[in-house]
């Protein structure tokens, strides 16, 4: 018997998140166990932070943040480089 692949979709329930949930569910195979996790739940948010989630939607596969979801999110240096905080 093949072990199930654990797929976690971190979502805030927004339309962009819903699109990713639908995509993941559409791509999932019989050996994929897809869990949609609500970031408004503090335990889910802690799990997401531990995985390195910086923005939603995000997908983790077998406990590892998918490459397409890594390194995203707001960071101060990028905002300042874009002009935020400058007269």
UniProtKB/TrEMBL annotation:
One Pfam family recorded for the sequence: Thioredoxin_3
Domain Thioredoxin-like fold positions: 6-66
Protein name stated in the entry: Thioredoxin-like fold domain-containing protein
């Amino acid at each position: 018997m093949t072990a199930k692949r654990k797929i976690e979709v971190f979502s805030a329930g927004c339309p962009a998140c819903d699109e990713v949930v639908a995509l993941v569910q559409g791509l999932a195979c019989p050996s994929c166990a897809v869990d949609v996790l609500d970031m408004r739940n503090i335990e889910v948010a802690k799990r997401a932070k531990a995985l390195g989630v910086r923005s939603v939607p995000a997908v983790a596969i077998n406990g590892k943040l998918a490459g397409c979801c890594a390194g995203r999110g707001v960071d101060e240096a990028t905002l300042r480089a874009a002009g935020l905080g400058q007269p």
